[in-house]
Amino acid sequence: MKFEPYQTAEIPGPLKAIPIERPQTVAGIIRNAKRPIVIIGSKIFDVAPERTIRDIIEISREVGAEIVVTGGINRKFEELGVKEFRSMPAMELADRLRDPGWKGFDGKGNYDLAIFVGFRYYYAWLILSGLKHFSPDGFRTLSIEPYYQPHATFSLYNMKIDAWADYISSIKESLKRG
Amino acid sequence: MKFEPYQTAEIPGPLKAIPIERPQTVAGIIRNAKRPIVIIGSKIFDVAPERTIRDIIEISREVGAEIVVTGGINRKFEELGVKEFRSMPAMELADRLRDPGWKGFDGKGNYDLAIFVGFRYYYAWLILSGLKHFSPDGFRTLSIEPYYQPHATFSLYNMKIDAWADYISSIKESLKRG
Amino acid sequence: MTLKIGELKTDVATFRNLEIVLGRVEEEWEEPLGPTPMPSITSLRKWDYKLLSRYKPFYLPFCDLCCLCTFGKCDLTKDKKGACGIKMDAQQSRIVLLACCIGAATHTGHAREIVEFLIERFGRDYPLDLGDQVALEAPNIRLVTGIKPRTIGDLEEVLDYVEEQIAHLLASTHTGQEGNNLDFESKVFHAGMLDHVAMEVADIAQIAAFNFPKGDPEAPLAQLGLGVVDLSKPVILVIGHNVIPSVYIVDYLNETGLKDEVEVCGLCCTAHDITRYSDRAKIIGPISWELRFIRTGVPDVIVVDEQCIRTDVLDEAMKINAPLIAASEKACRGLPDRSNDPVEEIVEDLVSGRQKGVLILDMDKIGEVAAKVAIRLAPKRKKFKALPSVEEIVEEAKKCRNCGFCQKACPNSLPIPEAMARAKEGDLSKLADLYDYCIACGRCESACPSGINIITMMVKSSERRIKNEIFNVRVGRGPIQDTEIRDVGRSIVLGEIPGIIAFVGCANYADGGHELVEMAEEFLKRKYIVVVSGCAAMTIGMYKNEEGKTLYELYPGNFDAGCLVNVGSCVSNSHISGAAIKIANIFAKRPLRANYMEIADYILNRVGAVGIAWGAMSQKAAAIASGFWRLGVPVIVGPHGAKYRRMLLGRKERKEDWYVYDARTGKKVYVGPVPEHLFYAAETKEEAMVMAAKLCMRANDTTKGRAIKLTHYIDLYKKFYGKMPDDIHLFVRRLADIPITMKDEILAELKKKGWKETEIPDPTLIEELVRVKEE
Amino acid sequence: MTLKIGELKTDVATFRNLEIVLGRVEEEWEEPLGPTPMPSITSLRKWDYKLLSRYKPFYLPFCDLCCLCTFGKCDLTKDKKGACGIKMDAQQSRIVLLACCIGAATHTGHAREIVEFLIERFGRDYPLDLGDQVALEAPNIRLVTGIKPRTIGDLEEVLDYVEEQIAHLLASTHTGQEGNNLDFESKVFHAGMLDHVAMEVADIAQIAAFNFPKGDPEAPLAQLGLGVVDLSKPVILVIGHNVIPSVYIVDYLNETGLKDEVEVCGLCCTAHDITRYSDRAKIIGPISWELRFIRTGVPDVIVVDEQCIRTDVLDEAMKINAPLIAASEKACRGLPDRSNDPVEEIVEDLVSGRQKGVLILDMDKIGEVAAKVAIRLAPKRKKFKALPSVEEIVEEAKKCRNCGFCQKACPNSLPIPEAMARAKEGDLSKLADLYDYCIACGRCESACPSGINIITMMVKSSERRIKNEIFNVRVGRGPIQDTEIRDVGRSIVLGEIPGIIAFVGCANYADGGHELVEMAEEFLKRKYIVVVSGCAAMTIGMYKNEEGKTLYELYPGNFDAGCLVNVGSCVSNSHISGAAIKIANIFAKRPLRANYMEIADYILNRVGAVGIAWGAMSQKAAAIASGFWRLGVPVIVGPHGAKYRRMLLGRKERKEDWYVYDARTGKKVYVGPVPEHLFYAAETKEEAMVMAAKLCMRANDTTKGRAIKLTHYIDLYKKFYGKMPDDIHLFVRRLADIPITMKDEILAELKKKGWKETEIPDPTLIEELVRVKEE
Ligand code: SF4
Ligand code: SF4
Ligand code: SF4
Ligand code: SF4
Ligand code: SF4
Ligand code: SF4
Ligand code: SF4
Ligand code: SF4
Q1: Cβ neighbours of C389 (radius 10 Å)
Q2: Among A39, A172, C281, C654, which residue has the least CB neighbours within 10 Å?
Q3: What CATH number does the domain located at C471-768 have?
Q4: Which residues of A are less than 8 Å from D64 in CB distance?
Q5: Residue D720 has pLDDT above 80, yes or no
Q6: What's residue C1's pLDDT?
Q7: Looking at residue C26, what is its pLDDT?
């Protein structure tokens, strides 16, 4: 069940996310990205313990990734003491990510790795599907949700929240170690 | 790719065949069936070397399974020296297999394990799907084709013909050893 | 339209081979025929392409495959082509078109049945009288077909046209037909436009014939909720969308003096419509209340007509020993057709349990059968009218093996296993907590290997609160009055009323129906015009404030600022599009008849209307939304709406996308991203509210109007996001657009972005509407 | 049908509020109206249930899921229910219904366009003259609607009815509508019945108006194949199903004296139909020849109308620098609409390459544009008219990395990697070998990570043979003559002609088209009547015997034993059902008008007709098959046909399923499993042939007829299976049924099975047709 879609019926098709078992591998993917972006959905506070949210923020900082929060969770995010983040509806952002001509938030061009976390399963599922089919070559998505998201390029697998928190923390550690 | 549907687009759904790596396990499944039936499709001569066909026949004999050939390959089958087999169009047979009230070829009741081999991939795919959804509880299908057939209850996996021939032969050996 | 008739027999004479011109009576409608009467698939393609070049489709494939023909399944991943040559973008739009065809056909079939039936009962000449206040009775029909229908019989020609077009559209989805995604999208718009015509046919016919409220802002309140049923009486439950069988039930009860003896309550649009017909009928709720209510065991007989009825209703009815009567050719549900049998025989068979359900297509019999069966069964069914005891529930919970399949099967991923664990220990509170977030779809039960009746357990756990589920809803008033349009038209077009927000569609909520109420209240308080229909109208009535009042009691039913207008059932959605059309015609005097493009252009650029279909689920909802798009009205859906597989999104930063013609000069003028999107699935209600406020901005807003709209947008943004939006510079055209109260703050923002004043044109996307050609 | 008209203006007078009875001219058709004129969805449900209780659906889900609304995706595995309550059996039948609605709508839209167009061109009064030999011009229309159409204008009312019904059917597929699989199946039958009506409308209209062959058994032969095009001339390729644009092309060439200067050749049904119109037009082949022919670079301009046209035809046309002209609203393909531009401008844009393709909906312009573009471009395109060299092919093969993706993507799992490996070494023979088994769908190319042009390579490898692809096909003759029916009716009904085998449908062959030829030849030799249409008719012309003759040259075109009848394009399939109906009416004098059930009962029990749709692919094919089922004609499909997801299978050993009424006595009589199945996907051609022979047996066969049919069945069985079938005892009713030549053998069999003689009744499934009621 580990590498099956978390929602029973969400069977994707032939091209499925590469499931990644080791946090170090995830760290490698993030580190190797030229312009990663971290996209945090409105469900993050329902799913992730605070330490995990902080870990995700640290991961972003470590690689200098832009953080975008969606769905209007800005206030809660600020309460965590985070200041430097963008916000944009997820659909609008996804629509831009698929456009090789988009200049990004900083005007420096589009991103090459979009990291998703904190979404309703099916909502991210569909956005990841849109990006899988319609994004330019070289653009990749990484789901770091605590379940398998088959439409991403890379995904974690179905796991319990504690294990997930540790996993995310290991990604962070791994990145810090460089 | 081992446990992926052989034809790219034939994605089945949540309930997929249990892929079986060891011939001994297959032998166990066959041995444990009360009334197995072996269904051999018209493509058998295109796919299987003669030794494999003979192995399949021996497997059937070993467990006293009825052999049914479909698609009108009777003559070729007889040329192999096989005499005791039935023939019936595959669709007609599948339609009966799903009926708990069917009496079987020998009048002793329906079968509990249908073993498929020698079919076009998609044709068996659909028949196995029909049986998966509409057969009575306790009825199971086993695909011993040289690829993964996700709609079966149990399936081998995608493999080369030589490896497959050895695999089938190991099933036979395993059954003979008891 | 010319008709050649072989032989013409009348009482007067017999003609042979007479050529007849079927025309409307001209003297009643002097308006000349516009450019696009009964448009064919491509008549408005030019307009569609204009919209689509701004609002580009973003596809979210639900599956990588196509399985529509035996060449398949085909893998369409990324750039792969199917065996027919199709690619993923076209395939997704093709599926959207298929859904919209189903939706449009559903309303059309519904309309056809109503019209046929009413013609048979009242005659073809029965006038389409929608009351004194509604002279413009059929804005969609007039706009699209160029026909001004005077009688119910006149509607047949309209339906002929719609049916023909649907057949063409459906044909376009055939393997190897249309292959371009934009052309598919243009056809989607066409289907949507037809859908509004069909809905209008259905609703104006039934309003006129059954004397439903005719645009009455003070339509009465009807009771709503699981708690409204009088359990001492026999209960007839009607479910569906086609009110005719229910009318016959009510009539029968009235005629036989039984109206006070039997409860008639309904689910879905039939419930809406029966309250428009009878002051005694009650509404249980939307489709998501269906399993819940049946599980209470209360209904003594269930009558289903068509659309959005659980297909397992027979099984559910059998569980509570209530017979089922199916009343539609479209949903026979495998039941024996008893239409031609004597009433008493049918009643006997149902009461005795010899038959669990019957199909009755003779409306005259339905009322009698339903009433008699209910009355005879009610006493016998007493023991079924109770939920299991708490002890039984706890026992049931003990069967749970904590496998988690239920949660994985749940569309909202509700934490059922957790609730079960607590229930085992006698604590039902967690189960009760799920109630608000559950859409009662039953997938958890289907998935449960222990066969646990999860929904029944949730209902039981919420029993006390359910008993208090006594709410209300203003009965569907139907059309917006012409005078109302005259009164508010200016304020809307100039932007002084910040917008019209229409809450429509089904109950497939991702996070509970209360979100809808919150949103409606927010906009009501802000003096938007809030219009509602269908399931959404019910949901909005399902919450009370501290004083025990629902929004329907707190806000008046006029089409005016800060009012809450329930137009009625799904087919009443045509009055929402109709209102937008009427603004263009009655207020702005734009020619209406067969003049689609100009009117849509008017609405897109001037009428700040937005639809929110928070729980949109069905193919009908897809078609309704498409009809709004073509008219230039954006639609926001909730998270599940992403499963419609396609967004229509503007890109506000692409300046080149936001030019219009100035109709006065012909010059191309940048007007900013107004409205920014046509179709968009929001992630949260906060996002939806901010977006709705933003989408109300239109190119034609006066500075005063824009300032008001900006105030709400910025205010909502700040409220939820805690800061100023970073795109204000795109919406301020001149200094006068800036809300006074926020002046300094905004000026600072504008400066940062290097903002410059721009013109406010007389905006249009249509070159032909330019009055003076630019040299 | 009554029509109320507000104002009636004619040249003669002005009437107001006139009530008009639209009736047919009675004196021309004395037949009283039967019981089911214009049947609604449930009018024939009783009949459908009779069929479905014998021929039970066996579903083969293509996917475990439903993804039709935003409540989903829902997992319907085994007994799981979707969020709407639906289960897998109903869901599968729902998808079948959706496919059949698409199919029926496609023919209906096609018919509507033809009728509208012809009315505009020839007037509503243009007579539907199908020649002296075809007085019964519209058997399906008369049977279903009760209308006897005399003019093209009369067909409008027929289409109104069909479109209305399709809308109702499509509505039934909406979430929460029909929920029972058998009721869905009944609606599938309804869709199929409508489909045949629509096809008939389309074909009789075009036959009458364009003067196609009118049931002429000696219709001329047309050239067929990749090798038939005269490469020295400019080449216009027409693709699709709606012949109107092609007619305009031919007319333009004729009128301008260019007919000998320009080649007009076609793919798919448009090709069939244009050869019915012009003696110069040529047929390339069915849809599976589309990529092949375009890749040869030969066409100078490609004109597409509608249906079954590769959706990537624009890309393919661009590859060979040939402009594309789209001519249908239903398939605009994203092209700019140039309908209102001057011809010269369009021509210039296309010739210059400024535009790669255009949409032209003005038929008057199409002929001229196509011709002028072809003539001007042909000289410039010379260099494109050649396939790559062998060396280039070998180089291309070297790009292959033997990954196997192509084979996995190939619907027929063809061993492309193997062929590539050989091609690398310069041996193209393996590639050429694939040619016969490849349906040229292009999925392999899409899947190839090296971007290898696999199809081009196959075509090049087969180049020599392709040059010799010069075959022929008898031009579609249209309807079967009344006199032919009179002549053979008795032999068919009594079983002396062993059966009518109709080879119909698309080219989605699992093992090559030659299988179809083999089958056709087998039955021709055995003196069955062989009828063909559409793609199948082309495939059958694509093989020659040793003397270089195709089956069309070897067998006459009469509707008689041992003859090969090409009725024409897809819409001509209505003449096949029409022939069965005509047997019941003309030969057996059963009342026809609006008398569906009796006629279908007659055909099921008496007319030994079987359809073989060996490569059935499309939704249209699904609808066509459904129409045959409701009429009692079984259909066999090839292996890919299993993807239609549902078989209708009888169970020969269940005696209780095979009773009929004896119309003479009312007694229920066992008649054996005749015909055994209604819908069945065969695994091999051998299986199909044996089954077809068997399915020709009918309850009413005389002993002589049964003996003949048994002879063929047993003979074929022995030929392929090497032994006697083990079910003969089910088909022998009396000793006289036994073929004399096999008497001893069969008697031994019968004895083994404990066979006893049974009665031969006057068989019917309809109680009402019993003449003497049993006491
Ligand atoms: S499109 Fe839907 S039905 Fe088809 S394969 Fe995908 S999930 Fe299954
Ligand atoms: S419609 Fe096209 S993509 Fe879909 S299954 Fe058929 S051939 Fe494949
Ligand atoms: S019924 Fe409620 S809890 Fe169960 S799956 Fe549906 S939404 Fe989830
Ligand atoms: S599916 Fe049933 S058994 Fe499993 S956790 Fe849910 S309620 Fe418990
Ligand atoms: S709003 Fe949606 S779910 Fe509700 S009745 Fe209408 S279509 Fe059905
Ligand atoms: S139609 Fe029914 S089964 Fe299909 S997705 Fe919708 S709710 Fe699920
Ligand atoms: S084009 Fe031919 S070889 Fe290629 S995938 Fe299709 S059938 Fe197979
Ligand atoms: S997909 Fe292309 S590269 Fe791979 S084996 Fe086939 S031809 Fe060779």
Answers
A1: 10
A2: C654
A3: 3.40.50.2030
A4: 9, 11
A5: yes
A6: 37
A7: 42
Q: Which amino acid does the sequence have at C647?
A: M
Chain C: residue whose CA lies nearest to A79:
C722
**Residue C726 backbone dihedrals phi, psi, to 5 degrees:** -95, 15
Q: Report the residue of A11, A120, A122, A123 to disrupt the D interface, i.e. the one with the largest count of D CBs within 10 Å.
A: A11
Q: Write out the CATH class of domain D226-384.
A: alpha beta
At position D477, the amino acid (one-letter code) is: R
- Our CA angle for C89, C95, C99, nearest 5°, is 145
Contact (Cβ atoms closer than 8 angstroms) between residue D753 and residue D725: no
Compute, in angstroms, the gap from residue D85 CA to the centroid of ligand 1: 18
- Nearest partner of D206 among D120, D111, D278, D137, judged by Cα: D111
> For D45-210, which CATH class?
mainly alpha
> Mean pLDDT lowest for which of C501-515, D27-41, D323-337?
D27-41
Considering chain D, what percentage of its residues have pLDDT values greater than 70?
96
Helix C573-582 vs helix C482-493: angle between axes, to the nearest 10 degrees?
60
Same fold, C226-384 and C471-768: yes
Angle at C60 between CA C59 and CA C64, to 5 degrees: 105
- Count of H-run helices and E-run strands, chain D: 28, 23
Note the Cα D333 to chain centre separation in Å: 25
Which tokens hold the place of C473?
A: 């809803």
User: Does residue C303 sit in helix, strand or coil?
Assistant: strand
Low-confidence ranges of chain A (pLDDT < 70): 1-10, 12
* All structural domains of chain A with their residue ranges: 18-177
Distance CA C83, CA C75 (A): 9
Concatenating the DSSP letter of every residue in D306-340 gives SSS--TTHHHHHHHTT--EEE--GGG-TT--B-TT
Using the beta-carbon criterion (under 8 Å), do C639 and A91 form an inter-chain contact?
no
Distance from C-alpha of C332 to C-alpha of C358, rounded to nearest angstrom: 9
Q: Show residues of chain C in contact with A71, CB under 8 Å.
A: 682-684, 686-687
Strands D609-613 and D2-9: unpaired
Measuring CA to CA, which residue among C168, C40, C661 is closest to residue D339?
C40
For D163-174, write each residue's pLDDT tens digit.
Answer: 999 999 999 999
* DSSP SS3 for D462: coil
Structure tokens at D613: 């749709």
pLDDT value at residue D279: 94
Per-residue pLDDT tens digits for D382-416: 989 989 999 999 999 999 999 999 999 999 999 99
Class of domain A18-177: alpha beta
Q: What's the CA gap between C305 and D454, in Å, rounded?
A: 54
Is D732 in contact with D697 (CB distance < 8 Å)?
no
**Distance, CA of D212 to CA of D217 (rounded, Å):** 13
Q: Kindly report, residue by residue over C248-303, the tens digit of the pLDDT.
A: 999 999 999 999 999 999 999 999 999 999 999 999 999 999 999 999 999 999 99
| ipTM, 2 dp | 0.95
Confidence of residue C93 (pLDDT cuts 50, 70, 90): very high
Chain C interface includes D442 (CB < 8 A) = yes
Mean pLDDT of chain C: 94
| Bridge partner list, D265 | D237, D282
Instruction: Compute the distance between CA of residue D411 and CA of residue D434 in angstroms, rounded to an integer.
Output: 13
Tell me if A91 and C642 make a contact (CB, 8 A cut-off): yes
Measured CA to CA, the distance from residue C623 to residue C626 in angstroms comes to: 5
Query: What pLDDT digit, counting tens, does each position of C449-478 carry?
Result: 999 999 999 999 999 888 888 999 999 999
Residue B102 is encoded by which pair of tokens? 């069917």
Put simply, the answer to whether D683 touches B90 (Cβ < 8 Å) is yes
pLDDT of D18 > 60? The answer is no
Phi, psi at C568, each rounded to 5°: 140, -135
Q: For C541-557, write each residue's pLDDT tens digit.
A: 999 999 999 999 999 99
pLDDT at D28: 55
Q: What are the residue ranges spanned by the domains of chain D?
A: 45-210, 226-384, 394-467, 471-768
